[in-house]
Write a structure and sequence with these properties.
Blueprint (H helix, E strand, L loop, with lengths): L4 E6 L5 E5 L5 E5 L2 H15 L2 E5 L5 E6 L12
Parallel strand pairs: 1-4
Antiparallel strand pairs: 1-2, 2-3, 4-5
Length: about 80
């Protein structure tokens, strides 16, 4: 099963983008990372995807599941 994802990534020309995993185009562009995180989380929740956050170098720093979590917490069976 392929995970559906949305990512907050730095834009090479400045600012931050929210991108759907595998897409070349951004769903949204924001000047500040906090704005991108807020809007990206809403998109991810609405579409039930994994929300992946990158740092300014493009490395993954955090993720949050809003869909079918492959490793759900044991108390949520």
């Amino acid at each position: 099963m392929v995970r559906k994802t949305h990512h907050v990534v730095p834009n090479p020309e400045g600012g931050w983008d929210v991108k759907k995993g595998g897409s070349g185009r951004a769903s949204g562009h924001y000047e500040h990372k906090t704005e991108a995180l807020k809007e990206g989380r809403v998109i991810s929740q609405n579409q039930h995807t994994e929300f992946v956050i990158h740092d300014k170098h493009g490395r993954i720093t955090d993720s949050d599941s809003h869909g079918n979590d492959p490793c759900p917490p044991k108390d949520k069976n």
